[in-house]
Amino acid sequence: MHSTRNKLLHLLAQSEFISGTELGAQLGISRSAIGKHIDAFKQLGLDVFSVRGKGYKLSEPLSLLSHDTISDYVQAQLSHEKYRQIPQPLYLDVLNVVDSTNTYIKQNIAQLSQGASCIAEAQSAGRGRHGKQWISPFASSIYLSMYWRFSGGYQTLSGLSLVVGLAVNRTLNHFGITDGQLKWPNDIYINMQKIAGILIEVEGSVGDEVHCVIGLGLNVNLPDDITGIEQPFTDLQSHSQPTMINRNHLTAQLILDIQHALIIFEKSGLSSFISEWESLNVFADKDITLIIGQQSVQGVCMGIDPQGALRVMVDGEIKTYHGGEISVRAR
Question: 206 falls in which pLDDT band (50, 70, 90)?
């Protein structure tokens, strides 16, 4: 984002009226230039009030991401035994608008250290599984991607998305959200509504070092008029009233919990997480439909196997299904 535009956004972030004259004086630009920047904010989905004689203000206070605040929070937690093995120092890029945080990590992967992450206020081309668009309004959610390198080839990654989902749910617990559930293989739900999704992209070969980009989209405080989401959804703020979610603290805790889980996963694989995952399985013992390409399979969800494959009772026989292009739906 243009540096002047970024400064203007910070001035408006407290949601109090400030005149165009005052804004122009602080930023060293004309009132007409202020108006053009305001139009750009509106295109990002920000609701900006403009009242003659008063000036401009955002419709509600805006919590912007801060590298220093996130870093300070992480550093304060590293003294805890639980987090002492987390890679240091924290490598984090805080971006305003990016096409995709996963793409950003992939483009810079050659120079990244273990655990390097980026987070953005908005994505212009965010994506989920099956190439679907991830709706990414400005300063309304967490759009986070992390680099993690595994030795041992693809076979060491079985169940990775399940582990990341568990880590995200642990973060929700930390913020008082205790009714989260997990949908195989990569979603977090509350009351049968999606609150977060995970996209893992992998580069490497069998038996060789594998480079993973772990992407997370977590709804925090979505606009009331948001469109384009094709399934039931919710956000953290809806379950945290009246407390306002601090996205900087949330981001820091996500980084801590995800990296802590990844370190354990590297050492012991999925086995350390299966029991916890099963206790949070949103479809446990429920009738489900699997969509596999143009085909569908109906059965009863029986949990996961030691490799993280989904176990389904189909016509009296338990069958296992691995990730890829499979979608799971209630029926």
Answer: low
Q: Give the pTM.
A: 0.90
Structure tokens given for 263: 């370190």
17, 64, 222, 233, 283 from 192: Cα distances, Å? 39, 29, 17, 8, 10
Q: pLDDT, tens digit, for every residue of 152-170?
A: 888 889 999 999 999 999 9
Q: Write down the pLDDT at residue 224.
A: 76
Domains and CATH numbers, the chain: 3-58 (1.10.10.10), 67-278 (3.30.930.10), 283-330 (2.30.30.100)
pLDDT at 120 over 70: yes
Instruction: State pLDDT tens for residues 216-227.
Output: 999 998 877 777
Nearest CA among 294, 286, 331, 230 for reference residue 310 = 286
Give the single-character DSSP code of 180. Answer: E
Q: Are strands 187-190 and 92-98 parallel, antiparallel or unpaired?
A: unpaired
| Confidence check: pLDDT of 28 > 70 | yes
Please list the active-site residues: 129, 194, 329
Maximum Cα–Cα distance across the chain: 74
Q: What is the tens place of the pLDDT at every residue in 246-266?
A: 999 999 999 999 999 999 999
- Rounded to the nearest 5 percent, the helix, strand and coil shares of the chain are 35, 30, 35
C-alpha closest to that of 189 among 45, 289, 330, 307: 330
Angstrom distance (rounded) from CA 25 to CA 27: 6
Torsion over CA of 230, 231, 236 and 242, rounded to 10 degrees? 90
Give buried/exposed letters for 99-123 (b at 16+ CB in 10 A, else e): ebbbbbbbeeeeebeebbbbbbbbb
User: For residues 78 and 107, is the Cβ–Cβ distance under 8 A?
Assistant: no
